[in-house]
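Q: Hi! First time doing this. I have a protein sequence and I read that you can turn it into a structure. Is that right? Here it is:
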Amino acid sequence: MTQEDISPRESTVRSIGRQGFHHIAYRDWGDVNASRTAFCVHGLTRNSHDFDPLARTLAVDRRVVCPDLVGRGRSDWLTDASDYHLLQYNIDLAVLAARIGAEHFDWIGTSLGGLMGIAFAGLPNSPVRRLVVNDIAPEAPLSALWRVSRYMHEDRRFTDLAEVEAHLRVTLAPFGPMTDADWRRIARTSATQTDAGLRLAFDPGISKNARRTSLLIHVDLWRYWDRITCPVLILHGVESDFLTPALLARMRRRLPHAEVIEFDGVGHAPTLNASGQIGVVQQWLDR
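A: Yes, that's right. Below is the predicted 3D structure, encoded as structure tokens:
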């Protein structure tokens, strides 16, 4: 199978939460009977399309599943925004893994997806075989959370994709590398049509809840990080405000077997859409 032969299948699975059931959408790449499976899990207000270039490459010889976390993309929104939290996200992913019959899998997680992976891999009897943590530590600096929250809370409407792209070029400026074609693609996959115009494809309640909880709850997953035994690769955007040099040094000190690859000229977060970044991930997973 070559990359040109690969296109994703779109499906949903029904999961459960405090207020009832909801559907999780996902894009399923590659041979469903492949011997290896990888999950690619996106950041706080992003969606499964962020991994399209990486998934197309990895799916040549493995199954690659890219979910839309609840409240994002094609997935259902929750009735109570306070339920947008790590436990609910990981319940949903456990349900999805059971749905596709994946007993063990690799995990590539960007930002929030990396936090989820840390928790998943740090639990007893974890199904995670290899873990790629993309530009996040087991805790997040408050200054970085506030930077993100400033642009998240607006439920804006846009007249066309050019306006969406202009907005994303500002709010996601630390992403890298990004070409003009990448910005056009991400604008197209980040927007959804409403009667009042285009809007970003995530529930505004996510940002409101994240803004509130960032002031009340200090994100601390170090106890999970310390218990991880599977191979770990940390991807670091050198200019990132989420994965600072001090946090990276602490991660390496507390989990000596973790490997690190850094990308110059990139902030939060490496997009994993360029051949150099994709190749790094593919080679490490294939070892």
